[in-house]
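[job 0412] stage=complex_fold ligand=uridine-5'-diphosphate status=START
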Amino acid sequence: MRVVITGGSGFIGSHLADRFLADGHQVVCLDNYITGHPGNTAHLTGRADFELIECDVSDGIPVQGKVDAVLHFASPASPFDYHRYPLETLRVGSEATMHCAEFALKAGARLLLASTSEIYRDPLEHPQRETYYGNVNSVGPRSVYDEAKRFAESTVMAYHRQAGLESRIVRIFNTYGPRMKVDDGRVLPTFCAQALRGEPITVFGDGSQTRSFCYVSDLVEGICRLLASDYSGPVNLGNPNEITIRQLVDEILAVCNSTSDVTYQDLPEDDPKLRRPDISLARKVLGWEPTVDRSEGVARMVDYVRTELARV
Ligand code: UDP
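[job 0412] stage=complex_fold status=DONE, emitting structure tokens
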């Protein structure tokens, strides 16, 4: 296949590029680097089966030639980044998704949309199944991401129903691993960096809010299976192993052998209280479930953050 990945120099996009190349496919990555990083795909430069185009996919998809699949992963994805780039976040979820759909349709390609557990926002159903409609505040500070992704899902389904677009939608729950930006405010890289530097760990709220963290290689495997499947409705991919943020601090301090203090700061507005995927559908239609335990994943994450801190 020849696969186009928008946001291909981002955290998840670049891992997907590695995987498709390893499986013998050709990859075209598109990125404007507002939150992606050229270093994530630097090791692929010069390969005959790899192309990188610097562009803003909200303006269009500047790719020529045969394409078999488009994976739309471009978007700011940390709360810190989408607060910093609210209009870019809205455009890449809306205009860029429409460009991807039009492009895929003309190319006769399959479109896979990276959606999110933020579709469910502050959920009243727990764990969250794909059938849950969510509890979204359309005017809150997180709404630019949530509403952009909801619009994106709606767009993909409209092209699927009305124009026959071959489409897939993955709802990604909190994912972590190497190539996450250490300074984009997300909890795992932030806590690892603070613990390794011996700085106070910044818990927002009382730390009783929960998340369920999936290691990136598990997510990539699920996405590949979804792309190859014939299931066009949304599918949750994530690790159902749920933990409070306060418990996460203790796990990270132990792995880092750190004595950092813990400080408590105000909970950001609209921070979801609970999050855990119900992955029954992914198990059924993709035969997928995560294989990397948090203990193993966090140890790898700490190694990665240690290397990053030594590098900068
Ligand atoms: N969080 C925290 N301290 C930090 C960063 C995040 O306590 O320095 C909390 C945040 O309030 C949220 C959880 O960790 O409840 C996960 O935050 P993240 O930004 O990683 O992703 P989210 O799931 O909120 O999109």
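Residues 78-79, 174, 185-187, 190, 202-204, 209, 211, 245, 268, 271 surround uridine-5'-diphosphate (CB under 6 Å).
[job 0412] exit 0
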